[in-house]
Design a protein that fits this description.
Blueprint (H helix, E strand, L loop, with lengths): L3 E4 L3 E6 L2 E6 L10 E6 L4 H11 L11 E5 L16 H13 L3 E6 L9 H6 L3 H6 L4 E3 L5 E5 L6 E5 L7 E7 L2 E3 L3 E3 L1 H6 L16 H12 L4 E11 L7 E11 L2 H12 L7 H7 L7 E2 L8 H9 L4 H10 L8 H6 L5 H12 L12
Parallel strand pairs: 3-8, 4-15, 5-6, 5-10, 6-7, 10-13
Antiparallel strand pairs: 1-2, 2-3, 4-14, 8-9, 11-12, 13-14
Helix pairs in contact: 1-2, 6-8
Protein backbone atom coordinates (compact mmCIF):
# COMPACT_ATOMS: atom_id res chain seq x y z
CA UNK A 1 0.00 0.00 0.00
CA UNK A 2 1.33 3.50 -0.81
CA UNK A 3 2.40 5.90 1.93
CA UNK A 4 -0.69 7.02 3.90
CA UNK A 5 -1.96 10.56 3.56
CA UNK A 6 -4.08 10.15 6.70
CA UNK A 7 -3.72 7.37 9.24
CA UNK A 8 -6.07 6.89 12.20
CA UNK A 9 -7.18 4.00 14.35
CA UNK A 10 -10.25 3.58 12.14
CA UNK A 11 -8.94 4.02 8.59
CA UNK A 12 -6.09 4.75 6.22
CA UNK A 13 -6.27 7.21 3.31
CA UNK A 14 -3.70 7.15 0.54
CA UNK A 15 -3.04 8.29 -3.04
CA UNK A 16 -3.07 5.71 -5.80
CA UNK A 17 -3.19 6.35 -9.57
CA UNK A 18 -4.14 9.97 -8.97
CA UNK A 19 -7.08 9.15 -6.70
CA UNK A 20 -7.65 9.35 -2.97
CA UNK A 21 -8.54 5.92 -1.65
CA UNK A 22 -9.57 4.90 1.84
CA UNK A 23 -9.59 1.62 3.70
CA UNK A 24 -11.35 0.87 6.98
CA UNK A 25 -9.42 -0.90 9.73
CA UNK A 26 -10.92 -3.35 12.22
CA UNK A 27 -11.73 -1.40 15.34
CA UNK A 28 -14.09 -1.35 18.32
CA UNK A 29 -17.05 0.93 17.65
CA UNK A 30 -18.54 1.37 21.13
CA UNK A 31 -16.52 3.74 23.28
CA UNK A 32 -18.16 2.66 26.53
CA UNK A 33 -18.86 6.29 27.46
CA UNK A 34 -22.55 5.84 28.15
CA UNK A 35 -23.38 9.33 29.46
CA UNK A 36 -26.52 10.92 28.07
CA UNK A 37 -28.43 14.03 29.06
CA UNK A 38 -31.96 15.14 28.17
CA UNK A 39 -32.64 18.86 28.21
CA UNK A 40 -36.05 20.50 27.87
CA UNK A 41 -36.07 23.18 25.16
CA UNK A 42 -38.91 25.37 26.48
CA UNK A 43 -38.82 28.90 24.97
CA UNK A 44 -35.12 29.73 24.96
CA UNK A 45 -33.26 27.49 22.53
CA UNK A 46 -29.92 29.13 23.33
CA UNK A 47 -30.22 28.53 27.07
CA UNK A 48 -31.34 24.94 26.51
CA UNK A 49 -28.43 24.22 24.18
CA UNK A 50 -25.91 25.82 26.54
CA UNK A 51 -27.10 23.84 29.54
CA UNK A 52 -27.12 20.57 27.62
CA UNK A 53 -23.61 21.13 26.27
CA UNK A 54 -22.41 21.97 29.77
CA UNK A 55 -23.99 18.91 31.38
CA UNK A 56 -22.63 16.49 28.78
CA UNK A 57 -19.16 17.98 29.21
CA UNK A 58 -18.85 19.24 25.65
CA UNK A 59 -15.99 21.56 26.60
CA UNK A 60 -13.94 18.41 27.21
CA UNK A 61 -14.55 17.41 23.57
CA UNK A 62 -14.34 20.76 21.77
CA UNK A 63 -11.97 23.61 22.42
CA UNK A 64 -10.59 26.87 21.03
CA UNK A 65 -9.56 26.60 17.38
CA UNK A 66 -11.33 23.29 16.73
CA UNK A 67 -13.03 22.82 13.37
CA UNK A 68 -16.48 21.39 14.14
CA UNK A 69 -18.73 19.91 11.46
CA UNK A 70 -22.41 20.07 12.37
CA UNK A 71 -23.96 17.35 10.24
CA UNK A 72 -27.63 18.25 9.96
CA UNK A 73 -30.51 16.35 8.40
CA UNK A 74 -31.95 18.59 5.70
CA UNK A 75 -32.16 16.55 2.51
CA UNK A 76 -34.37 13.91 4.08
CA UNK A 77 -37.06 16.35 5.21
CA UNK A 78 -40.35 17.63 3.86
CA UNK A 79 -41.02 21.36 3.39
CA UNK A 80 -42.95 22.87 6.26
CA UNK A 81 -42.98 19.67 8.34
CA UNK A 82 -40.57 20.53 11.16
CA UNK A 83 -40.22 17.00 12.61
CA UNK A 84 -38.63 15.79 9.37
CA UNK A 85 -35.49 17.97 9.36
CA UNK A 86 -33.08 19.52 11.84
CA UNK A 87 -34.56 22.69 13.35
CA UNK A 88 -32.46 25.69 12.20
CA UNK A 89 -33.12 27.57 15.45
CA UNK A 90 -31.47 24.76 17.40
CA UNK A 91 -28.54 24.63 14.98
CA UNK A 92 -28.09 28.39 15.37
CA UNK A 93 -27.99 27.94 19.16
CA UNK A 94 -25.34 25.23 18.80
CA UNK A 95 -23.23 27.51 16.59
CA UNK A 96 -23.41 30.22 19.27
CA UNK A 97 -22.21 27.82 21.98
CA UNK A 98 -19.33 26.51 19.90
CA UNK A 99 -18.20 30.00 18.96
CA UNK A 100 -18.48 30.99 22.60
CA UNK A 101 -15.68 28.56 23.48
CA UNK A 102 -13.56 29.63 20.50
CA UNK A 103 -14.35 26.71 18.16
CA UNK A 104 -14.99 27.18 14.42
CA UNK A 105 -18.25 25.46 13.48
CA UNK A 106 -19.65 24.90 10.01
CA UNK A 107 -22.90 23.30 8.92
CA UNK A 108 -22.90 20.51 6.36
CA UNK A 109 -25.10 18.13 4.41
CA UNK A 110 -24.82 16.15 1.17
CA UNK A 111 -27.10 15.94 -1.84
CA UNK A 112 -29.85 13.33 -1.86
CA UNK A 113 -31.72 11.71 -4.71
CA UNK A 114 -34.66 14.07 -4.34
CA UNK A 115 -32.88 17.15 -3.00
CA UNK A 116 -29.79 18.93 -4.19
CA UNK A 117 -28.67 21.18 -1.35
CA UNK A 118 -29.24 24.48 -3.11
CA UNK A 119 -29.61 28.01 -1.69
CA UNK A 120 -33.32 27.67 -2.42
CA UNK A 121 -33.60 24.53 -0.29
CA UNK A 122 -31.68 26.16 2.56
CA UNK A 123 -34.10 29.08 2.42
CA UNK A 124 -37.16 26.85 2.49
CA UNK A 125 -35.76 24.88 5.40
CA UNK A 126 -35.13 28.10 7.33
CA UNK A 127 -31.33 28.08 7.29
CA UNK A 128 -30.41 30.98 5.03
CA UNK A 129 -31.13 33.81 7.45
CA UNK A 130 -29.04 32.62 10.38
CA UNK A 131 -26.23 31.33 8.14
CA UNK A 132 -25.97 34.75 6.50
CA UNK A 133 -26.44 36.88 9.62
CA UNK A 134 -23.93 34.88 11.67
CA UNK A 135 -21.53 34.27 8.77
CA UNK A 136 -21.69 30.53 9.29
CA UNK A 137 -20.03 28.49 6.52
CA UNK A 138 -22.25 25.89 4.87
CA UNK A 139 -20.52 22.98 3.12
CA UNK A 140 -22.25 20.80 0.55
CA UNK A 141 -20.47 17.48 1.12
CA UNK A 142 -21.21 16.39 -2.45
CA UNK A 143 -19.21 19.21 -4.05
CA UNK A 144 -15.88 18.93 -2.21
CA UNK A 145 -12.95 16.49 -2.64
CA UNK A 146 -13.86 12.85 -2.07
CA UNK A 147 -12.24 9.65 -0.92
CA UNK A 148 -13.21 6.40 -2.64
CA UNK A 149 -13.65 4.26 0.44
CA UNK A 150 -13.61 0.54 1.07
CA UNK A 151 -15.61 -0.42 4.16
CA UNK A 152 -15.02 -3.71 5.94
CA UNK A 153 -17.45 -6.38 4.79
CA UNK A 154 -18.94 -4.33 1.93
CA UNK A 155 -18.00 -5.11 -1.65
CA UNK A 156 -19.06 -1.72 -3.05
CA UNK A 157 -16.82 1.33 -2.88
CA UNK A 158 -18.45 4.39 -1.31
CA UNK A 159 -17.46 8.02 -1.83
CA UNK A 160 -16.95 9.95 1.41
CA UNK A 161 -16.11 13.65 1.85
CA UNK A 162 -12.43 14.12 2.64
CA UNK A 163 -13.26 17.01 4.96
CA UNK A 164 -15.05 14.78 7.48
CA UNK A 165 -12.14 12.32 7.49
CA UNK A 166 -9.49 14.84 8.45
CA UNK A 167 -8.29 14.27 12.04
CA UNK A 168 -8.57 17.98 12.87
CA UNK A 169 -12.32 18.02 12.12
CA UNK A 170 -14.67 16.94 14.90
CA UNK A 171 -18.20 15.91 13.96
CA UNK A 172 -21.51 16.55 15.70
CA UNK A 173 -24.38 14.43 14.39
CA UNK A 174 -27.47 16.61 14.84
CA UNK A 175 -30.75 15.12 13.66
CA UNK A 176 -34.41 15.09 14.64
CA UNK A 177 -35.60 11.73 16.02
CA UNK A 178 -37.98 10.04 13.61
CA UNK A 179 -39.12 6.67 12.39
CA UNK A 180 -37.77 5.39 9.08
CA UNK A 181 -39.70 2.99 6.90
CA UNK A 182 -36.65 1.00 5.79
CA UNK A 183 -34.25 1.30 8.73
CA UNK A 184 -36.54 1.64 11.76
CA UNK A 185 -35.29 4.94 13.13
CA UNK A 186 -33.24 7.96 12.07
CA UNK A 187 -31.06 9.28 14.89
CA UNK A 188 -27.30 9.61 15.44
CA UNK A 189 -25.97 6.80 13.22
CA UNK A 190 -28.49 7.00 10.38
CA UNK A 191 -27.85 10.75 10.10
CA UNK A 192 -24.22 10.07 9.13
CA UNK A 193 -25.38 8.01 6.14
CA UNK A 194 -26.55 11.34 4.74
CA UNK A 195 -22.93 12.57 4.78
CA UNK A 196 -21.96 10.15 2.00
CA UNK A 197 -20.85 12.32 -0.92
CA UNK A 198 -22.81 10.56 -3.63
CA UNK A 199 -26.25 11.88 -4.46
CA UNK A 200 -26.96 8.40 -5.87
CA UNK A 201 -27.20 6.86 -2.42
CA UNK A 202 -30.35 5.11 -3.63
CA UNK A 203 -28.16 2.36 -5.08
CA UNK A 204 -27.50 1.13 -1.56
CA UNK A 205 -31.23 0.48 -1.13
CA UNK A 206 -31.35 -1.97 -4.03
CA UNK A 207 -30.15 -4.96 -2.00
CA UNK A 208 -32.09 -6.13 1.05
CA UNK A 209 -29.51 -5.62 3.80
CA UNK A 210 -26.92 -3.49 1.99
CA UNK A 211 -28.46 -0.25 3.25
CA UNK A 212 -28.01 -1.35 6.89
CA UNK A 213 -24.36 -2.23 6.34
CA UNK A 214 -23.64 1.07 4.58
CA UNK A 215 -25.40 3.09 7.31
CA UNK A 216 -23.39 1.26 9.98
CA UNK A 217 -20.11 1.72 8.12
CA UNK A 218 -20.64 5.42 7.37
CA UNK A 219 -21.28 6.06 11.08
CA UNK A 220 -18.23 3.99 12.10
CA UNK A 221 -15.84 5.82 9.82
CA UNK A 222 -17.29 9.35 10.04
CA UNK A 223 -17.82 8.86 13.74
CA UNK A 224 -19.44 11.73 15.68
CA UNK A 225 -17.51 13.16 18.58
CA UNK A 226 -20.89 14.14 20.01
CA UNK A 227 -24.46 13.22 19.10
CA UNK A 228 -27.36 15.64 19.57
CA UNK A 229 -30.87 14.46 18.80
CA UNK A 230 -33.53 17.07 19.27
CA UNK A 231 -36.64 18.78 18.04
CA UNK A 232 -39.67 20.65 19.21
CA UNK A 233 -41.90 18.12 17.50
CA UNK A 234 -40.98 14.50 16.93
CA UNK A 235 -42.06 12.76 13.73
CA UNK A 236 -43.79 9.42 14.29
CA UNK A 237 -45.06 7.02 11.65
CA UNK A 238 -43.90 6.51 8.07
CA UNK A 239 -40.71 8.53 8.18
CA UNK A 240 -38.92 10.10 6.48
CA UNK A 241 -41.68 11.18 4.08
CA UNK A 242 -44.79 11.15 6.27
CA UNK A 243 -44.71 12.31 9.88
CA UNK A 244 -47.28 12.63 12.63
CA UNK A 245 -45.97 15.48 14.83
CA UNK A 246 -46.03 15.08 18.59
CA UNK A 247 -44.75 17.75 20.94
CA UNK A 248 -41.35 16.67 22.22
CA UNK A 249 -39.38 19.80 23.13
CA UNK A 250 -36.25 17.90 24.09
CA UNK A 251 -32.58 17.84 23.21
CA UNK A 252 -30.73 14.57 23.78
CA UNK A 253 -26.94 14.82 24.20
CA UNK A 254 -24.76 11.72 24.09
CA UNK A 255 -21.04 10.99 24.20
CA UNK A 256 -21.44 7.77 22.23
CA UNK A 257 -23.64 7.31 19.15
CA UNK A 258 -24.66 3.77 20.16
CA UNK A 259 -25.80 4.83 23.63
CA UNK A 260 -27.61 7.71 21.96
CA UNK A 261 -29.46 5.47 19.53
CA UNK A 262 -30.40 2.99 22.24
CA UNK A 263 -32.10 5.74 24.25
CA UNK A 264 -33.75 7.17 21.13
CA UNK A 265 -35.06 3.76 20.10
CA UNK A 266 -36.74 3.43 23.48
CA UNK A 267 -38.33 6.85 23.14
CA UNK A 268 -39.50 6.03 19.62
CA UNK A 269 -40.86 2.70 20.79
CA UNK A 270 -38.81 0.75 18.27
CA UNK A 271 -37.02 -2.42 19.48
CA UNK A 272 -33.29 -1.86 19.31
CA UNK A 273 -32.65 -5.50 18.44
CA UNK A 274 -34.57 -4.91 15.19
CA UNK A 275 -32.36 -2.01 14.10
CA UNK A 276 -29.93 -3.88 11.90
CA UNK A 277 -27.36 -1.13 11.42
CA UNK A 278 -27.28 -0.71 15.20
CA UNK A 279 -26.71 -4.43 15.72
CA UNK A 280 -23.89 -4.46 13.13
CA UNK A 281 -21.97 -1.85 15.13
CA UNK A 282 -22.64 -3.45 18.52
CA UNK A 283 -19.90 -6.06 17.90
CA UNK A 284 -20.94 -7.99 20.99
CA UNK A 285 -20.64 -5.03 23.36
CA UNK A 286 -23.12 -4.36 26.15
CA UNK A 287 -24.66 -1.11 24.93
CA UNK A 288 -26.18 0.93 27.73
CA UNK A 289 -26.80 4.52 28.70
CA UNK A 290 -26.57 6.39 31.97
CA UNK A 291 -28.88 9.37 32.36
CA UNK A 292 -27.02 12.28 33.92
CA UNK A 293 -28.59 14.05 36.91
CA UNK A 294 -30.82 16.96 35.98
CA UNK A 295 -32.17 15.31 32.84
CA UNK A 296 -35.78 16.09 31.97
CA UNK A 297 -37.47 12.84 30.95
CA UNK A 298 -40.06 12.83 28.18
CA UNK A 299 -43.59 12.99 29.57
CA UNK A 300 -45.44 9.68 29.74
CA UNK A 301 -48.33 11.02 27.65
CA UNK A 302 -45.96 12.06 24.86
CA UNK A 303 -44.26 8.66 24.94
CA UNK A 304 -47.63 6.93 24.72
CA UNK A 305 -48.55 8.97 21.63
CA UNK A 306 -45.22 8.31 19.94
CA UNK A 307 -45.20 4.60 20.65
CA UNK A 308 -48.84 4.16 19.62
CA UNK A 309 -47.91 5.57 16.22
CA UNK A 310 -44.53 3.91 15.75
CA UNK A 311 -43.74 2.10 12.56
CA UNK A 312 -43.93 -1.66 13.29
CA UNK A 313 -40.80 -3.73 12.58
CA UNK A 314 -42.85 -5.97 10.28
CA UNK A 315 -43.73 -2.93 8.16
CA UNK A 316 -40.03 -2.04 7.91
CA UNK A 317 -39.24 -5.56 6.70
CA UNK A 318 -42.05 -5.36 4.15
CA UNK A 319 -40.93 -1.93 2.96
CA UNK A 320 -37.39 -3.12 2.37
CA UNK A 321 -38.70 -5.97 0.24
CA UNK A 322 -41.13 -3.88 -1.82
CA UNK A 323 -39.76 -0.33 -2.07
CA UNK A 324 -36.41 -1.32 -3.58
CA UNK A 325 -37.90 -1.19 -7.10
CA UNK A 326 -38.16 2.62 -6.97
CA UNK A 327 -34.41 2.90 -6.47
CA UNK A 328 -33.77 1.58 -9.97
CA UNK A 329 -35.34 4.72 -11.48
CA UNK A 330 -32.55 6.55 -13.36
CA UNK A 331 -30.66 8.95 -11.12
CA UNK A 332 -31.17 11.98 -13.37
CA UNK A 333 -34.94 11.54 -13.01
CA UNK A 334 -34.64 11.24 -9.23
CA UNK A 335 -32.39 14.31 -9.02
CA UNK A 336 -34.06 16.66 -11.48
CA UNK A 337 -37.71 15.60 -11.31
CA UNK A 338 -38.52 14.49 -7.76
CA UNK A 339 -38.05 17.90 -6.12
CA UNK A 340 -40.75 19.37 -8.36
CA UNK A 341 -43.26 17.20 -6.52
CA UNK A 342 -42.20 18.29 -3.04
CA UNK A 343 -45.42 20.28 -2.81
CA UNK A 344 -47.38 17.03 -3.05
CA UNK A 345 -45.59 15.46 -0.09
CA UNK A 346 -46.11 18.66 1.89
CA UNK A 347 -49.81 18.66 1.01
CA UNK A 348 -50.21 14.98 1.93
CA UNK A 349 -48.50 15.54 5.27
CA UNK A 350 -50.63 18.53 6.17
CA UNK A 351 -53.80 16.88 4.93
CA UNK A 352 -53.52 13.42 6.42
CA UNK A 353 -50.71 13.27 9.01
CA UNK A 354 -50.24 16.64 10.73
CA UNK A 355 -53.92 16.72 11.90
CA UNK A 356 -53.35 13.42 13.72
CA UNK A 357 -50.63 14.96 15.89
CA UNK A 358 -50.20 17.91 18.24
CA UNK A 359 -50.29 21.61 17.36
CA UNK A 360 -46.91 23.26 17.83
CA UNK A 361 -47.31 25.14 21.10
CA UNK A 362 -43.79 26.13 22.15
CA UNK A 363 -42.35 29.46 21.09
CA UNK A 364 -39.32 29.59 18.86
CA UNK A 365 -36.38 31.70 19.77
Amino acid sequence: MPQPVIETGRYTIYHEHGKLLGSEKPHRVYTGDDRVFIQAIEDDAGAAMARGMERIGASEIFGPGDLVAIKVNIGGGIHGVLPTYTDPDLVSALVDWLRGIGAHPFVCEANMRGHTITPQLLTVRGYTTFLREKHVPFVNLSTIPRVTFQFLGIHKHVDLPLLLLKPNVKIISFAPPKHHWECGITCAQKNMYGAISEAKKSRYHRSYELIDHVVAAAARVMKPALSIIGTRQLGAGLGPHFAIPFNFNRLIFARDMLSCDKLCAEILGYPVDKIKYFQINVQGADIRYTMLPGSTPVEAAALDHIRANRIPPKSVETSKKTLFVQYFIPSFIQTFVYHHFEWLLTWLNHKFYVPRGDPLTSQRG
